[in-house]
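pinging the channel bc i need a second pair of eyes. not urgent but kinda urgent?? the chain im working w is below, pasted from the shared doc
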Amino acid sequence: MDLRLRFLILLSLSLNTPLAAQQTARSPASRPSKPNVVLILTDDLGWQDVKCYDIDEPSPMETPNIDAFAKKGVMFWQGYSPAPTCAPSRCAILSGNHPARAQKTHVVGGAPPAPINQHFRMMDPWYSGRMPENELTIARMLRENGYTTGHSGKWHIAIEHNAFPQPTDVGFDFTRSDRGSRRPMNDRLSGFATTAKDDPFRLDENGYPYHQTNEDALSFLRENKDKPFFLYYATWLVHSPIHTRSQARLEKYARRLGIDPANTPKKDTPGQQNPFYCAMVEELDHYLGIIFDYLDETEDPRWPGHRLRENTYVIFTSDNGGMEGGPEERYTDNHPLAKGKISAMEGGTRVPLLIAGPGIPAGVQTDVMASGLDFYPTILSMTSTPRRADKNLDGCDLLPLLKNDPRDSKLVTHADGTIRDMMVWHFPHGSALESTIRIGDYKLVRNYDHVNNPATPHLELFQLYDSSAGDVRRADIEEAKNLAGAMPELADKMNSRLTEILTEMDASYPYYCPTYPKPLPNKEKVCTVLSHRRNGDNVEVTFRENGARVTRANLIYTLNGNERFEEWFRASATLIGNSKVTAQLPDGTTHYFLNLIDENQFLRSYPEVVRRGKSFADSALSIDDANARSSKGASRTNPDWNVPFDRFDTNNDDHLSLQEYKTGQAGGPKLDQRFNNFDKNKDGKVSRTEFVDRAR
């Protein structure tokens, strides 16, 4: 018998056995139609913290797993976060809405506008404390398309980590937020993890501490690998506190850098010279390597004979640029980029961005601009999840770029087909007080606190790259050469375009402080509130203009005054003539303020905002006040030192670092000495009790 015929007969018989029939029935002939997605969002990881992004000065840190992953897909040299701080970036990534449009432009939020302290000429605008619970998140969209959705790690899309809404409120089936080995250490120079069986951070065979956050991410993958899944893994690394539980890692970098861990570099010392931080970056790389290995080595139950990674898209990035330092300590250095976290300059928004998955070429590096805002529409496209006509998306679908030619910027288009060559950031907060726009090679920075401020120009124009010859060449990514004076027409054109975009998104802008103790143009023209009355849900204030026209008014109200997670909202009030403002209180209002804004961008709050502990309610108008706080003019109260404490305490850990204190005081005299006076127990941080008692 012909050997070929004999083989065909044997093959036919084998395929008719029950076992073979079962295997054939459960083995898809092709790739499953719904690929998996893993989105890894690191915390405060800088552009120059990852080894494969090294330019100029070589990084001392080792990131072999991330570097290897970069070779499996597309590496973006011009990847950006939606904002220079974590909460707005996280909300933007999950919602697809630009932070300016969402009125979620900084961490915490949900508070009445008020000056941080007397040294600030301007105050932040009101901004939302959270992402709305009814937001059509990417998790909700994927769940509607049959995906199991999971979250592990940091959340922080609300006033505090545990405040509403939580992941299960916005579309996640699985969530765990254990800090793992990132829990604070009593003393970062001792108490390291060991190999003892009862050590909760027991060292693994490679000497790395057990990290519950990573184990939670793995648990989700193990439990859901047999179905289409979306994992949002938001690492706690490499955010402060700056410490490591691995003594071996710390000693390794201390030797490499020649730095004594007991005497780390000061905030103003340039370079990546902090052994604790270097160890943290390597730990992050190790934990992510475990995730990458699991995807590489685990068979796909939906596609026998293939590994999970073959049908899984992985996106790796950071929520903002690197946090360069504090308290009095250098963490990292974003050089050659300018500044870092809490600034919309390049160091605060440019981040590592790596994307790999089915159909995406390996080992490609690109200079095409991309943003965290692009993840939502890209993931929809990756998973063939239909877009909703009623859902706004401010980013672009990157999949045509990724699958066709990752170096062709013309493949990144808006929904209407126009090519995307522009990005905008809006950060009207703190000492930054800026908005920026990038169009092609050029970037414009608009500084809001420029009036009578010689150190801060109104506009700064930088040419980041030169692509005039067809390729992309580095020009001034340092943002060191302000071209606004030499190219005024381009600066004005970009500034006008920035205004158009922010106006379309109804962005909020910072205000000048009428209580600023030093001279400020037009401060004497700010209006005076004369009286207030309330009739049911209708409120009214009368005011006198003192030379500046009041152009708009807002009601700032809360539904849970004096409660935990007290949250304030904003609604428009009605101007009547040039002497009266009326507003209607929403149902459930417990307390409220009225804000009057004049033509010079000064804000008059009635009553004046004072914070006690974590509450503003005691200084607000209350609906429980039988007299509705009817008054003649605003009354002043004794200073409450909890107010500046809460403003300074940006990470909400109820302690002030020296950096938080210095940032809050913004240029006050002898700040190191004053901080040390507060720090009674000399532990390098100031508790609320220490601050309030000393201030009194």
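so Residues 40 and 316 are 5 Å apart (CA to CA). and The chain is about 25% helix and 20% strand. — does that match what u expected or am i reading it wrong
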